[in-house]
Amino acid sequence: MNAKTTTAFPTAALIDGEWVTSKKTFPVLDPATGDKLADVPDLTAEDAQRAIDAAYKAFPAWSAKPAKERGAILERWCDLVLAETEALAQLMTAEQGKPLTEARGEVAYGASFIDWFAEEGKRAYGHTIPTTAASRRYVTIKQPIGVCAAITPWNFPIAMITRKVASALAAGCTIIVKPSEETPLCALAVAKLALDAGVPPGVLNVITTQDAAGVGKALTADARVRKLTFTGSTEVGKILYRQSADTIKKLTLELGGNAPLLVFDDADLDRAVAGAMASKFRNAGQTCVCANRILVQSGIYDRFVAALKAEIAKLHVAPGRDPKSTVGPLINADAITKVKSLLADATKRGAKIELGGEPDTHGPLFFSPTVITGVEPTMAIANEEIFGPVASIIRFETEADAIRIANDTPFGLAAYLFSQDIGRAWRVAEALETGMVGVNEGLFSNEVAPFGGVKQSGLGREGAQEGLEEYLETKFLCLGGITG
């Protein structure tokens, strides 16, 4: 790797290639300590309008570049991100809290999307269509949709940006990013590296703000923004969906989940426990594809619970910068309150805490890894995203019961199942009402496979060839007068 490295990351917003400050700012805090890391500009809807202006102005030249040239810039961006892995990981752990090992993994994961779309942008193929008349020829071409807006979450503050931005830029679009106010520093860092790689002014803009509603409304109301991509809660996704209706924007929505993880009697116990650990406790349980409900068949139930408790007891709760840390803090006080509330409701209704169940002593935003059994499908803990290190376990008897319980939710993002019966695995995977299914795997997200959900978990897909299509329009060309 010959990319030049730098660790002087900005704390200013980015509009039209310029680093923008403002009199009004807000602090970015370390969730492990509560210490202030930096102040960043608290921009307004008017600033968002300036960013739209810049992206609209930059679009013709960027979209006219050959895909190979855009891809070369993205490759340089990927190299720079990878060269800065340690600095970016340290920054991510500081502002988001996840253990450094996970943060380093996310940097590589985020870079993989840049690398993938640098190549995939060259494959925005149209096709020829057999004619219906001798004098005509039919072809389709793919063209970038235009100016895009991305609203990104705090739980994956680099990967959720690169997955959206790299696909947009590869397609020839320009984009405005509004990162979470909890984690703006990672967004600004990767944006700086994009500029260093040669992304022209206005092609990528980053708006830092605490006025999410006002900036969101500015982005959805402007007809020049032709595409909105959002990762976050279903509640906010519905608001953005409604606000985008007047301008008929194309939408990619990656919303809430309630992922079931099904363990059948014939599962490989060790693999099932390892899969549950990977799915449930990554990022302290703060991912949209976390196993929110662990459904275990009666014949393996007791052995699974005992084995899972033994593995959870090995987890080390500590600030993410501690080399031994495997579980860091939750993102804020509201997250702690929600976990406590869900556990209190479940125990009140008969569930039993087998392990943990209490805040950890490392600080106010740390919570002990927890196992709760006797959970019923009607409990709040089985119907709301926990977003914390809590393994909620439901017993089931038959395959039909498991499918019924798993699908009894308005959400449909991810699901997992563990079985050594190939017929059952295939049958259940087809029956689960989710956009993604891990079969004997607890982690499956990668750049080459489409990511997204069904039902109220969203619209569209990110990553893979499908992710590029989300930023392209298909144009049909009818060529007449071919024969005399």
What characteristics describe this protein?
484 residues, Aldehyde Dehydrogenase, Chain A, domain 1, 2 domains, six-stranded mixed beta sheet, 22 strands
Describe this structure as you would to a colleague.
With 484 residues, the protein is of the alpha/beta class. Helices cover 38% and strands 21% of the residues. It is built from 14 helices and 22 strands. It has helices at 45-64, 67-83, 85-96, 100-120, 159-171, 184-197, 212-221, 234-243, 269-281, 298-312, 333-348, 399-407, 422-431, 464-469, and strands at residues 13-15, 18-20, 25-29, 36-41, 127-129, 137-144, 147-151, 174-178, 204-206, 225-231, 250-254, 259-263, 291-297, 352-355, 370-373, 390-396, 411-412, 414-418, 436-439, 454-455, 458-459, 472-479. The protein has a seven-stranded mixed β-sheet, with helices on both faces. The longest helix is centred in the first third of the chain and has 21 residues, at 100-120. The termini are far apart. InterPro entries: Ald_DH/histidinol_DH (IPR016161), Ald_DH_C (IPR016163), Ald_DH_CS_CYS (IPR016160), Ald_DH_CS_GLU (IPR029510), Ald_DH_N (IPR016162), Aldehyde_DH_dom (IPR015590), Aldehyde_DH_Superfamily (IPR050740), Succ_semiAld_DH (IPR010102). Keywords: Oxidation, Oxidoreductase, Potassium.
Major sheet details: 7 strands, mixed
The CATH architecture of the largest domain comes to 3-Layer(aba) Sandwich
Record the strand order, biggest sheet: 14-15-16-13-12-18-19
Shape: globular
Number of helices: 14
| Strand percentage | 15-25%
Q: How many domains?
A: 2
Helix fraction bin: 25-40%
Structural class, by secondary structure, is: alpha/beta
β-strand number: 22
